[in-house]
Amino acid sequence: MTGMARMAGTGLLALLSGAANAQSTVQATAQGDVSVTIYNNDLALIEDVRRIDPGKGEVELAFPDVSAAIQPETVTLTVPEATILEQNFDYDLLSPTRLLDKSVGQSVTLMHTNPTTGVDSGEPAKVLANNDGTLIEVGGHIEVLGDIGHSRLVFPGLPPGLKARPTLSVRLDSAHSGARPVTLSYLSHGFSWKADYVALFDQTGSTDGAGHIDVQGWITLNNTTGTSFDRAHVLLVAGEVANTLGDSENVPNRRFMPRAPKMEVAGTEASGRERLGDFYVYPIAGRTTLANAQQKQVSFLDVKGAPARKIYRYRNDWMGNAADPQSAQSVIRFSTGAKDGVGDALPAGMVRVYMRDARGQPQFIGEQAIEHTPMGSMLALPTGEAFDVKVQPTLIKRAKIDAGEWEQVARWRVTGEGKAPKIATVDTAVTHWQTTMQYRVTNAQARPITVEVAQAGLDTGWHDTRVPQESLPGEQRTLDERAWQVPVPAQGETVLTVTFDTRN
């Protein structure tokens, strides 16, 4: 046998095919009656009830087929009439690499198959090392194990401590023998779920954007625990439960960036769905198998004909001045209320919006993520930029306004040893500014529209912005934002002019 190159992972699997013969035959799964509660933030609670005869006295009990992503410190085991003495989680799992690692210094058999006759022959070998390649001693010389064609390694058995499946082992003191239900529960990472929504918006025959929307909701489950769970009861919890990896207190503060909220109004209606504390629970009907490395989808919402409206929206930053016209956002607005909406609380997820084309075929027009949304909320989901609707903000004029007086803005107490406290003050001149903005809104469509123009950034510290003049009546939504509903004729334009008085 000549020297050989380092063996690749796929070749190693072929060489170790004989190792499977050294394992005892086991059932497909050792799990019992399994219930899985899955949270949004990579966390699940698993309860596994198995009927076991632990025997009598001090015994060791093995629980194979637990999650490979188990958090061992969260394990709770209930064995009637037995006392738990010790528990261990064996995560050193059988694989070709680990088998070779554990077999260093051990004797193996190097098998050869004659390609002509198909007859097997073997010779004794010894595993010397498995570091970036495998070295074996065979026939009095050392070989680098590589692609050796019709040869394979055969191992006499599994090395101690190496498990074929993730296994929790427990040492307990049992009062008597006899089969009884044993309940194992633990937290595990590697499970996640999210909501996905398909929304079909229809405004056929509408001239003012009014229409209706069909919404289908799907739960998308992912299992990356390294373990499959067969015919499990599954509950999904919508909400962020606090844990060391997902606690919001550990998330650094994010810099505030002005944006239009997708949830314009938070709902105040109570949903009829099952609750767990402050979270909503979505049970999956019947039993379902959560296979490892599998994505599964289950329907949970199907609403037809909820009222909806298409609007156009443009939000300008403070003193935003565009050299070229900017596209307005195309927005689908609808309620989650029971009376005039989809009638449900919506867990966080992605909403993908479709509209029918002239041939009646649904076509994708945009997607938007939503947060956990209470029932009765008003959602406004931007789906993209409008082709024919443009807004050009222009800074027309900015000038100082002399207030004609001084304002005391700061004072503090000064104290000294043996002296009476004094009050120190600083007088600062107040300078006001008058800023005139113009928003030119154009519409190249064959129908009139209304564009919502919002000016943001009105509250950057001075708290007393005033609007002495505006060509259309506006609505002061917050200290930071004022909005105008701008009607624009078909194939025409409207110019909105607004004057702001501020301290900066």
Would you mind describing this structure in some detail?
The termini are far apart. It is built from 2 helices and 30 strands. Strands 13, 14, 16, 20, 21, 22, 23, 24, 25, 26, 27, 28, 29 and 30 form a 14-stranded mixed β-sheet that branches. The radius of gyration is 35 Å and the shape is elongated. It is mainly beta and 504 residues long. 3% of the residues lie in helices and 55% in strands. It folds into 3 domains: 9-188, no CATH class; 192-310 and 328-382, no CATH class; 390-502, Immunoglobulin-like, CATH 2.60.40.
How far apart, in Å, are the first and last alpha carbons? 85 Å
User: How much helix, percentage-wise, in residues?
Assistant: under 10%
Low-pLDDT segments: 1-27, 245-259
Please count the beta strands (DSSP E, at least 2 residues each).
Answer: 30
Mean pLDDT: 82
Strand-pairing-aware structural class? mainly beta
Total discrete domains = 3
**Radius of gyration from the CA trace?**
35 Å
Number of helices: 2
